[in-house]
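We close this part of the discussion by returning to an individual protein. The sequence in question and its structure tokens are set out directly beneath this paragraph:
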Amino acid sequence: MRDNGHLDELDRMILHILQEDGRASYSEIARRLKVPESTVRLRVKKLIEKGVIRKFAALINPFKAGYSIVAFIAVDVEPSRVKKAAEELSKLPEVDVLGIATGAHDILMQVTVKDLQELESFLIEKLGRIEGIRSTETSILTSVRKWGYARVF
């Protein structure tokens, strides 16, 4: 990684391999890229320190792990409460992805729950307790055609 924070080609190739197989060893990555293992180790360490790699984790298919509902929820919030509401929502275990957004809604989030009853409970009990929320719009995915992660260009 260059000092200005931009990724060079080697960083991109290392990240690509790790995204395809997060269990790939440094020696395996080094062999595939034809560079010393110490180079891979140092590059990954710097990518972690700079926050490019947030953490190593398994990418779970919720439908195979006992969850039947993945929903996208758009939230409208009183302007003075948007940041606080986002902070509170981000602490809820059902929330997978959350961001403050531009456009028609203030906050957009992805939620995974076991069933419709759990979704109802989430909407009424958990969202209902957060001050400033004016309305929500929920869309349930009927199927998922792609599970992914941030691409490295």
